Amino acid sequence: MSEAAQAQHTRVGREELEEQEKKLRERMSKIKHKVAVISGKGGVGKTVVTVNLAVAFAKKCNPGKVGILDADIHGPCVPRMLGMKGDILRVCPLGAFPATGPLGIKVVSIDFLLPDQETPVIWRGPLKTSAIRQLSDITWGELDLLLIDLPPGTGDEALSVMQLIPEMDGVIIVTMPSEVSQDVVKKAVMFARELNVPIIGVIENMSGLICPNCGARIDVFKSGGGEKMAEELDINFLGKIPLDPRISEASDEGLPFVISRVESPAAEEFMRIVGKIETFLTKNYVKTERAQDTGEKLKNNASDTG
Ligand SMILES: Nc1ncnc2c1ncn2[C@@H]1O[C@H](COP(=O)(O)OP(=O)(O)OP(=O)(O)O)[C@@H](O)[C@H]1O
Ligand SMILES: [Mg+2]
Ligand SMILES: [Zn+2]
């Protein structure tokens, strides 16, 4: 490609990207709160937390006002955990609409968007634009809360998704006690701070084991690590969810434990966590200031990648 052609190509790419981002902003403008669930590494229970948060809020909010964006390209598990496997987006000449799950939860999964199994591999390059295009075509409508299940870790993929979503209220970091390697959580904290997105707090999942026979709590890993770390990093500690075999059973069956195991210690603790998140979303938040910062960031990133 000649230099002139290259320049033309780059300019078109950037304009298209800006156009898509503008569209995405418009389509998301009627969402009151947007919260991403992140982790320093995979397999810590990010999706379990996302799905149960959605259900907990769906019980409290008006019908149809809670949504989940399952943006995990490695293993989009939200549909399975909500018993929606095989559902698809509603597409009509007016646009694409989320699928509706239990309690009226609106779900968009990357599974619905990217049927091609090869896509994760080429996610970094032109696919970013393509994903923006597809996500920007989703008509979310009015929502009180949108939860975003990000790809695990703090790499390029998680970053790409975070950069797509305008005016995020904050992130929830999920960790587990064995990850006492504070570095992993530190990375997630750095990630959020870099993006200028507030940290709502840390949830320590798989914290202790509830004995299936007698209900006693056994600390499998050294306890208290999460709280100490949160204090050191100056972030909120939201709570600890114990390891409970019934949780994994329930999520395999598409039944979030906050409704299928209401009286379990995990569900009780989870509802306390939900209360704290609710407080954060309604009080600790200065929307306008942050929105401007994020807007700047998006613009800079668009010109970096264009
Ligand atoms: N507190 C818990 N007690 C028992 N099982 C749990 C608990 N939390 C999560 N699990 C189980 O652990 C597995 C991993 O959870 P989940 O898929 O939510 O993690 P993740 O962080 O989203 O993983 P990935 O990085 O692959 O997206 C699932 O099978 C889930 O059912
Ligand atoms: Mg997951
Ligand atoms: Zn026991």
What do these coordinates show?
This protein has 306 residues and is α/β, with parallel strands linked by helices. It contains twelve helices and eleven strands. It has a single domain, classed as P-loop containing nucleotide triphosphate hydrolases (Rossmann fold), CATH 3.40.50. Strands 1, 2, 5, 6, 7, 8, 9, 10 and 11 form a nine-stranded mixed β-sheet that branches. Strands 3-4 form a two-stranded antiparallel sheet. β8, α7 and β9 form a beta-alpha-beta unit. α1 packs parallel to α5. The longest helix has 25 residues. Bound molecules: adenosine-5'-triphosphate, magnesium ion and zinc ion.
Quick structural summary:
By secondary structure, the protein is of the alpha/beta class. It has helices at about 5-25, 45-60, 80, 110-115, 125-135, 155-165, 180-195, 225-235, 245-250, 255-260, 265-280, 285-305; strands at about 30-40, 65-70, 90, 95, 100, 105-110, 145-150, 170-175, 200-210, 215-220, 235-245. α1 (about 5-25) packs parallel to α5 (about 125-135).
Low-confidence stretches: 302-306
Q: Give the strand content.
A: 15-25%
The assigned structural class equals: alpha/beta
Q: Tell me how many strands there are.
A: 11
CATH hierarchy: architecture: 3-Layer(aba) Sandwich
Helix percent band: 40-55%
- Quick one: CATH superfamily? P-loop containing nucleotide triphosphate hydrolases
Small molecules in complex: adenosine-5'-triphosphate, magnesium ion, zinc ion
Total count of helical runs of at least 4 residues:
12
Radius of gyration: 19 Å
What is the CATH class name? Alpha Beta
